[in-house]
Amino acid sequence: MIRLKRVGGQVQQVPNGLRYRIPEINWDSTRVLGLHPSFDTLVGAVISARQANPHHAAEQKWSFDRAAVAEEVEAFNVRICQSMGWTNFLAEIGGSASVPFQPLSPQDASLLQNAAAKAKKLWAGINTLNAWLDSGEPPVPQEQAEKRAATCVACPLNGSGDLTSWFTAPAANSIKRQLERMQQRNISTSLDDKLGVCSACLCPLRLKTQTPIKFIRPNISNEVITELNKGKNCWLVAELTS
Q1: To which H or E segment does residue 176 belong?
Q2: pLDDT digits (tens, 9 = 90+) for 174-233
Q3: Other C-beta atoms within 10 Å of 114: how many?
Q4: What average pLDDT does the structure give for the chain?
Q5: Global pTM value
Q6: Are 139 and 188 contacting, i.e. CB atoms less than 8 angstroms apart?
Q7: 11 - beta bridge partners?
Q8: Alpha carbon distance 230, 156 (integer Å)
Q9: How far is CA 81 from the centre of its chain?
Q10: Which of 81, 86, 168, 177 sees the fewest Cβ atoms within 10 Å?
Q11: What whole-number distance in Å separates Cα of residue 65 and Cα of residue 162?
Q12: 64, 129, 153, 187, 209 from 143: Cα distances, Å
C-alpha cells in the first residue's frame, strides 16, 4: 500500500501543500484553505463541501465518513506525488499498492503547475521586499515614489481587496509585518490608499513603489516581466530596461 509519509504520526506536507479537488462543484482546496492546510483540516473541508451540495453528493455517491474521505484525500495526493516524481514523500506499507499510478487529469496538472508558479512568484516578491527592509537603505526619492504610485493607480493590474483575498495566511502575515516596518519609518506616498496588489508580480504596491530597483532586479523573472507588459506603462519594466 502506497501512502503519504508520516512525521510524528501526522501526514507530511508535500511540495506546494496538500490539496483536493471536487470538479463536479468546481471546488478547489487551494481557493478555500490556501496552499498548506493540515491533512485533518483538508479532510474536514472536503466533508463540509460535500455536505453543502447534497444533490451532487447523492448523484456522485460521495461519502461523508471521515475515515473514507481521508483515504480519498490521501489517494489524491499520492497520485500528485507519483505524477510529479516526488517519491521521497511516499511510503510503501506492505503488500501491493492499493493506490496504483494514475496520471493527473490535464485540468488537475494545470492547476498544480499554476499554484507552484504563483507560490514561486509570491515568495520571490516577499524576499525582494525583505532584502530592502533588512538592508536599512532608504527608499527611492519621494518624487520617484510618487511617480511610480501614480503609474500603478492608473494601471489595470492594480488589484483591489485586502491581503487575505490575495494571499494565504502565512504570506499575508509576512506582508503585514513588512508594511508595519515601513510605517515605522514613516515611508508613504500621497496615493497609498489607492494602491493594492499588482496582479502580475503579486507585490503590495505600497511597498514595491518605495523599493530601490537594485533590490528588485535579481528576483524578477522573464515571465513576470511578460505579465507586467500587459499593464499600462509599467514603471518597473521601464526602470529595468533603462
Answers
A1: helix 169-184
A2: 778 888 888 888 989 999 999 988 888 888 898 999 999 999 888 888 888 888 899 889
A3: 11
A4: 82
A5: 0.52
A6: no
A7: 6
A8: 9
A9: 19
A10: 177
A11: 36
A12: 59, 20, 15, 13, 11
